[in-house]
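Subject: Interface between my chains keeps coming out wrong

I've been trying for a while to get a sensible model of this assembly. When I model each chain on its own everything looks fine, but I need the whole thing in one frame so I can look at the contacts. Pasting all components below, labels as-is. Any help appreciated, I'm running out of ideas.
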Amino acid sequence: MDDNKDNANPVILNASDLPTRHGESLLKKADDPIGIYLGGLLSATQPIDDPFDEALSASESESDRDFDEEIDAQEIYDLIAPISDPEHPLSLGSLAVVNLPDIHISRPSSARSRISTVVIDITPTITHCSLATVIGLGVRVRLEQALPPRFRIDVRIKEGTHSTGDAVTKQLGDKERVAAALENNTLRGVIRRMLSTCE
Amino acid sequence: MSDIRLYLVEHEKSRKEASQIAIRTAERLQSKELKLLDLIEALGEFLNDNDPSVRAKALAYLADVLESVPRGTVSRQQRELLVHFLTTRINGDAEGLGAAACANALMKIEEFGKWDAERAAECMQTIIQSLHPLRQIRQQSERYAVLKLINLLIAEYREAIHGLHQASSDFMPTFISLFEGEKDPRNLMIVFSILNVPFSEWELGAYAQDGFEAVFNYFPITFRPPPDDPYGITAQDLKDRLRDCIAACGSFAPYSFPALLDKLDSSSLNTKRDTLAALHSCISNYGTRTVSLYAVTLWDALKFEILSVQEEDLADKALDVISEIGAQLSVGRPQLVAYLRPISKECSEHLEDAPTKQSKAAGQILEAVASRTRECANLLVAHVVPHLVALFEGADSLAKRRSLLEVLVQLLKASVKVFGDWVTIAGRGVADTQEDTYNAFSEHKDILVTLLVGGQLSVPANEVAFKKICLEGLVQLCMCRNLLQDQEISTLIRQCLDLILDDYEGKVELRGPAIQALVDIAHQKPHLIIDHAFPRFLSLIPDNDTAGDLGYVPVLDAFSNLAQEAKVFDLVILRLRNKLDAAIREQSSSTFLCALLSALLYALTHTSASLDGTDEDCPLYGQLIFPLLQRVGDGSNQSNFANNRVYELVGQLCNVVLRRQTSAFQKKHLIEIYNPVDAFGESSENVDASGTLLNPLKLLASSYIVAALQRDVVPIQDLRKHLSTLSDIATADSTSVEVRRASLRQVSLILNKFLSPDNAEFAVDLLCSKPIGDFAACAHKKDSARLILASVKALLLRNERKLIPILPELRKLLLDPEYGRPVARGFATILQSDDFLTKENHCKISPLYRQKAFSLIVPPLTTSFKEESDAIKRNYLVAIMSIVKSLPYSVIESDLPSLLPLILQMLDLADEEATKVAAVETLGLILTENSAAMASYLSSLIPRLLKAASSKSNSGAVRETSLRCLANIAAAFSVDAVIPFRKSVIKELTRPLDDSRRAVRAAAVKCRTKWIELDEPKDGDISE
Amino acid sequence: MNSDSEVPTLEPIASFQPSLNTRAWMTAPHPKLPILATASADKTVKIFSLTTFRQLSSITGGHKRSIRSCAWKPGTRNESVLATGSFDASAGIWRHDDHPGSNEAHNEESKNDRSEDEDDDWRFAVILDGHESEIKSVAWSAGGQFLATCSRDKSVWIWEEMEDDNFETVAVLQEHDGDIKYVRWHPEEDLLASAGYDDTIRLYREDVDDWICVSTIDAHQATVWSLDFEPPKNPSLIDSVGPDAARQKDLQELEKSGPRLASCSDDLTIRIWRRTPKGGAEDKPLRDRIPSIIRTNNVDEEWLEDACLPKRHERAIYSVAWSPKSGLIASTGSDGKIVVYQEFWRDSHDQDEVRSEGPPTETSREWKVVAEVENAHDIFEVNHVCWTVRADRGRSNEGEEVLISTGDDGEVKMWSIQRGT
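Reply #2:
Try treating it as a single job with all components included. I did that and got this:
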């Protein structure tokens, strides 16, 4: 019917193939091997929540407090994977437009500088996809809203995946053009719909 | 006759006044003071007046009179006379006022006595001739009266009206066009139900097109009811009635299908939804022959809704329509084959480039159609499965193979749905003919089994998702009725056992599904599981754990999971009990005993089998519970068994079983049940000369027993002595933590369930008023406070009147400089749910206990809050929040003005993390329930929440809940109430975006996006 | 990146209050009065006082979208004229009557503190419509006769003000094949330079009666964000030339070429361009040549790279400013740094000096970093930097020169430079 879609039949990944952080929860299980069995009946740390002595149990123990969880590539991936493609009710993650290996974070270059840089290479589903710029813009807006301002966000089209990749990358890297584009209401509407699936 | 003239005059001013006059006339008619004939004659001159409005009003007068006249007053001939007279009078003058009056009058008369056929026919005839088209009556309420009359004629005198249709060929077109141009929703509702009769019951012949078009020009309905709509008609009501008309008869098909398919291209989603719903009704009503003519054209149009899905719900509706066609055509094989060929061909093509959006859609189509009838399933399976197997073997990537298997599983599920599994036959009745039970999968089962089993083994270890889908495929094959042989199912059972028991990479993700597979198969083929799985599990559970390693724990976990299936439950329990006996006999460690007891407890609490016994007998009790109680009772403190964890588990096992038994059963066995666990029993080995308890551990078990007993099965003779001993143990320093907790539980259970009125005074005094009174001087304040609060909770739950004066006294406990704070936190126990004082344990739970607790404990705190010192103020705040956090909004609503300022202050409390989290959550609750109450606090709440969300001194939980509350604010208020805060909130939220905890950052992102989305369309830069 | 040798940092003097709380694009100091105009993404221009660091007024209501650029008209009498360029594709001319006596040169001693009696009557005199998309930069020619505007529609427009409030389009130059980022006039001649998204710099002159592109510089490898001309009598070299004959000769050559041009780009480089003087008569400055109808082919010019400043920026460089008083160059950009460079005569034997790359060192001059500051606007990008003369009580001497930076955090800050001797 509407064959004006750039790519009517994209390849989609299986949800279980998408990278997740579950590795960590396995880690937690390691230190209480039998706790996971029989519904936790045998777990060593029986939860005795005694409200009388709450002061201790409720606030994390000291080690928890200074337990820093750095912002890493997986967290960036989790922020942008659920963005939906403007043409399909499918996420950029399931369409493999954004992939964990294509996200790079570089820490501040010198002791004094506090600026980190995030580089995201996006892979359009087909080489002449006219929506690559909108998708790139959606990724950039999502990260500018979700990451602390000390991050500089460079969204690029992955080498060799798009006929006018360099031109799109240049446009996405031009802060002034991005700012100007985002003042256009129709474009903001499209981006808002794309981001609405990032619950 | 002054009445008529009076009526005519009044009619102008107010209809109500006019009808009063008519009622007076009716009374005079009824009292025979006035005869009907005289009335008609008197009306005569008015009825023939040359001014139409006078004629109409006269008729209205007659109708009003008849309206209020009781049944008997009008004789049969008079009715005949009136009907004939009124029928001739139906005409459109005075904008139909007259017609409406006639209609009302006629309906009234008909009520008095049924008409005969030709009277009804004559009435319909006149309506059609003199009132055609109805829209000439401009007043919609007048048209409504006439429509009701027509509806009455169609409903009650259907044959007569049908006769008119058969008699003259032009009856139908005039009848259909009678209602042309009707716009009023209430009238339309009647028009649709009137037309539905001829459409669905009579032969329309040449007029099918007129009939269809008369109703279809209302499609799609975009009616939006006015806010104060008196008649309560919704768009959906109209849509349903219209749909019934469109789907009324097969002869509409040549017109309805093309028209509907054209509407399918509409850009409005609602139009598409109505179109799909209409198509579905048409297909289920038009009959197989008609549907078969359009089946393929419908498929060609509908497939795009699924293949290039825009909206999920539209795709689902389209799937329903396509599968409905399959169901309708399943009667005749040739039509079904003709319909399914293009579907299976196109789906097979899409499978070639799997995994794509369209291959996924193809899978959905195949499953939807195959799940409707056996014929559909067989035809699709026969055509698609071989192609699928070929594609699988030729596939170049694992992702492709997996997506093909996913389609295979979808087809298998469909086949189970239409053929049923080993336990229940689906679809047609029990006596299936041989031909009926043929399942096309039987041709391919061997290749599929090898392919799926192979898939399990040949694939590299880390391809867990692939192995999962293979396992799911094998399980579905086992479920299919009469498909696999027992021997083939046994191979799968062995494979699942390997996945559960062996060690391999990816086991963490495959062990669960493998266990679930065994449970599913146990439902189908219990004997196979018993023959093949049980021995393997039991061989790995040792008789004693001298070996020392904990290898048996995962085995026990898997084995006790089998108990989920009722058919193998009893045997699992029996085997576990035998292992327990052996373990005890061989002096195994308490860890091993606890493992076995935990397995038993897990089995009992996760089974679908019923644990209920009868008054006389309960097999579980005899088999498992009684022997356990005996072991506790015989007191031989055989070290490994006499251990607190073991006793606790024994208690839990007894509780789970006993609480479900009837009080008769409990009474019958009370002695055997309670005595063994009675720590204070006179028998020597319980209490020594100096009165110290020799077997305090028994309390751990007895508390669970006391919990299980029904309220009329009182285990203790001397309640007062029992309570005072328990209270001594609970507050004694030497008592261990477990025993103290057990005794507190037993105190609250006894107070709630077994406290007789005459003991109430004693108990309240012993456990509440006295300890509160001398709390200041008491040596071990914390334990005493625990006892007080446990007792208060139990008595509060049973709505004990004697408690009322005590509750306000609780405030005193908070004044203690050292223990005031922990006790304030302890207040939470009063309303916190716990696993002992529950309905399952037959406790008395009064519905108002929360309301009572709040209204008696909190006000004394809020009123005296101001005069207290800062330290005491903090205790009060913690105490108040410990109570408020378990309350529903309705309870605290009336006290919001005094509560809100205090809750806000709680946000500034140092190091009271739980209280702060509770405070923020309560604010969130108030926001969702009644944001208006918070409106005036916004300017002090938002900065506090921002500070709470970013200050490092707060725990992660507080930071996170504050952010969630901030997000709620953005959603709970009108945009212009929160816009003033928007810019600064968005700026401030950049700090928690950089929080050290990932969960806090995630909450910050959600919150910030909510506030950013608040922007008005013309707002500036979105990426501040 | 040359070595991190210890370089003095710029000292923050003050930030202008209140903060704009939203992205600020650039700030233009008034040619005479001690005031600044800051263009902002919230569709307004804020006027700040250099004496009190407070906001004097806010120019609103003229544009429907962000204001990207603004420029004061030079040489006005007892009124201030501000041109604004906005993303709504229109440019605006705003007029404000200055009070008598308030328009003396801003380094006068008079204490006319504008903040109290400031009336807010900025008049939105003219809208200049014509561009098809966002305007990126506006600039007045040295004498104030011409106003240049450039936009994403790849065109530079030159407007001339006839009588009051009536502007005429003198030229529409469509040389660039991409979004044009910046326009700048030569400090003396009617020579216009534009920098573009197509990585090129183009220079335009009026020949006979229409404007033509006389030169194109396409050495940069990425978007050229900003330009600035060298001040006509650049003190930094003249004062320190000394007796050396080679240097004297080099100085004369420079004077013959006329003021040089500095450009900064997304390719992280700042380069200096120098016009190759043509031999013979044509050398006379164009102003006083006899206009001839035939277009002579000798009007083209050649601008060659004179130097490439030391690389200190790690991300796009958004702004470069050549100080009219001291000849120092300042630059800033996405990495939040502000860097100041100075040009020195090269000592042939000095080896350990910090070398600047660039063309083979036949010139006897080199650029060195003399001051720098990181995180100038906290962690936000800095969009603009410019030089102005200090007018607040804290100034050390009459013409003390300071830097004004404008950033994404909506802050406008003043910095002072303690130049190493």
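Reply #3:
Confirming on my end. Residues 9-418 of chain C form a domain with the Methylamine Dehydrogenase; Chain H fold (CATH 2.130.10.10).
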